[in-house]
Structure formats: structure tokens, C-alpha cells
Amino acid sequence: MTKQVKNKTIAVLCSGGDAPGMNAAIRAVTLASLHFNHRIIGFQHGYNGLIDNDYIELDEAKVRDIIHLGGTILKSGRSKEFLTQAGQAKAAENLNANNIDALIVIGGDGSFSGLLNLNKIYQGQLIGIPGTIDNDIDGTENTIGFATAVNTGLDAIDKIRDTADAFERIFLVEVMGRHSGFLALNVGIASAAEQVLTFESFTNPGKELRNISEHIHACREQRGLSSYIIVVAENLWPGGLDKLASDLKEYANIDSTPCVLGYIQRGGSPVAKDRILATKLSIAAISAINEGKHMVMTAESSGNVLFVDINDAIQHKKQVNGSLLTAQNSILDIAEIVKAHKL
Ligand code: F6P
Q: What is the pLDDT of residues 145-181, one digit of tens each?
């Protein structure tokens, strides 16, 4: 690679929910910046750091040995103040006072919406890198942290399965994902859950209760008592997971044990896929800055890196893979298979 001398000052921050691989992204952004002779600084605690002018210089030593760490060395935040015009004005003021030529934000849709506001009052380049366990960003097949969160979810369910097997019990396992089913469906398929409840196929509580109970009864009729796991997307069931358990009891006298996986899915050492994705997308972010790009997010499609307009990245149009829904809802239906083949 021909090394160009650019001498820009670049700032990076992490915003919103932390995701495994954010540190890998900070490392790659830093090393690529230094490679092209840019100065690189990191604002701390998300947009709060921009407002408070709270930053650190980044160099090779600071990003050495961080690629395997979950969380983010820059800390993250969901800044209420940055939602106000006064907060945005302070942020732009600090960017200008520090002669920042380009700001890179590693985060999800809320963080990128913040860039739209900043763009109205700040003249420098604004670049996004998709980092969220939810994978709910348009224009990129994968977001940094998603692969690790899927693995963490399935690892947890493998363990829950041991107890479910030992006690021939039904477990309801809630996974994160905000309002999308990427995590739920992928974790459900990878962990061989008997059912997955996601927004994409949810009808209404009454109909779902009937389907769930019928399936549990069919399974138990066909194969006797055994473990049974339902993966449930967070925010899906009205009243939450405990309510689903009590609804099942009331509707069909079915006992179940609710288990919310919660924040363990956000933490942990990133898997290789997330480290590689973070590295690719972060190097692309510095290329974007070198090429004078503005208001784009780095993205991945079929293994290739591309640049997506920030506006297009936050449309919430990305759909979970239809073939996965079909697989979970029909092809992998244990009750049907056992019944049809009298196994
Ligand atoms: O966006 C990542 C995520 O972990 C979602 O899956 C979840 O709904 C949300 O963040 C939880 O947010 P908080 O950081 O407020 O706990």
C-alpha cells in the first residue's frame, strides 16, 4: 500500500450499547490513522465526551493488547444532552476548538441519528462504523458484536439445556435485540430451540399462546417428557417473560421457567468474525476520510467493504433472512417430524 501523508486530526468515539469488537475497531482506527500520519484522539463516554471535551490521545501503546477485550476502552454512553440543540452546539464547538477534521462514531442507529444533527452545524467529515449486537443497521450484512452475541446466547442456552434435560422442563429464554429478531432467530437456530418468538412472525398473544401450547403438547405426545426451549425476543411479549410464563400456565396449565439472558450478551471477548469485521470496517473508515467522504457508514456485503449513506443506514428496513424463518418455523419442526416418521 502506498503510504500517503495526510496529517489530519481524527476523533473517534463509541456510542450507545457497547458491543464486543468495539475495541478491535478502536485499535484498527488508531493504527490506520497512524499509518497515514494522522493524529488520532478518542472522546470518552460517547457524545458526552464530545460535549465535555473529555478525550485522550490514542497511540500504538494504548491500543496494544485490546483486540480481545469486550466493552470499550473509550467507554460508551447514551447522551441525553446531545439530543438537545445546546448539547449539539457544544459538541461542534469542541470539535472546532480541537481542529478535528473528521469524527468517527462506532455505534448503532441512535448514534448515527446523532450524526445527522451534528452534520447541520459541523463542517468536518462524519463517518459511522456499525457496532451493535442487534445487527439492525441497514446496508450492512453484519454489525460488529452480533456474531459474538449469537455465540454467547447459544453458549448460555447449551447450559440451560442441561438443566432443562435433567428436569424435563420447559424454559423460556429471553435474548436482546431491541425491536428486531436477528439475535433471537440466530440464537434459536444455533441452539436448536424448539420454538423462537420474534417480531417477524409474531401475530397476537392469543394466537401465539394457542400455537405454543399446541406445539408443546404435540412434542410431549410424540416424544414424551423432555427438555423444551423457547427463545423469546426482548420487548416482544406484552408484560415481559414472567407474564408469558403466567399466561401459559393460565391458558394451558403449562409450567415453564423464565430466564432472561440480558447483559451477558453484550460482554465478553469478541469472536474472530467480529475482530476481523471491526478491523476491515475501521480501516475502511480511514480510507473514507482520506478520500474526502462524508456522512457515510462503512459496511459489509458478501465479504466486500462498501460505503452507505448514513441516512440509508437508519431506515430499519433490514429484514431477517427469510430462509432462517422458514427453517425454524417449518423444516426444523420436531413435533411434525417425529409424528410423520413415527420415530
Ligand atoms: O442496542 C443494544 C442493546 O443491548 C439492545 O439489544 C437492548 O434493547 C438495549 O441495548 C439495552 O439498552 P441499555 O444500554 O439501555 O441497557
A: 999 999 999 999 999 999 999 999 999 999 999 999 9
Q: What is the position in ligand 1's atom list of the atom closest to the CA of 134?
A: 6
Query: How far is CA 114 from each of CA 59, 78, 249, 252, 297, rounded to the nearest angstrom?
Result: 27, 10, 44, 47, 13
Q: Is 266 in the pocket of ligand 1 (CB under 6 A)?
A: yes
The Å distance, Cα 241 to ligand 1 centre, comes to: 17
The rounded distance, in Å, linking the Cα atoms of 120 and 116 is 7
Q: Which residue puts its alpha carbon closest to atom 15 of ligand 1?
A: 17
Number of Cβ within a 10 Å radius of residue 80? 10
Cα torsion through 105, 106, 108, 114, rounded to 10? -10
Instruction: Decide whether any atom of ligand 1 lies within 6 Å of the 107 Cβ.
Output: no
276 CA distance to ligand 1 middle (Å) = 23
CA distance 240 to 157: 19
Q: Is 177 in the pocket of ligand 1 (CB under 6 A)?
A: yes
Indicate which residues carry an active-site annotation: 134
- Supply the pLDDT for residue 340: 86
Q: Report the pLDDT value the prediction gives residue 3, as an integer from 0 to 100.
A: 62
Sequence-separated (6 or more) residues with CB below 8 Å from residue 340: none
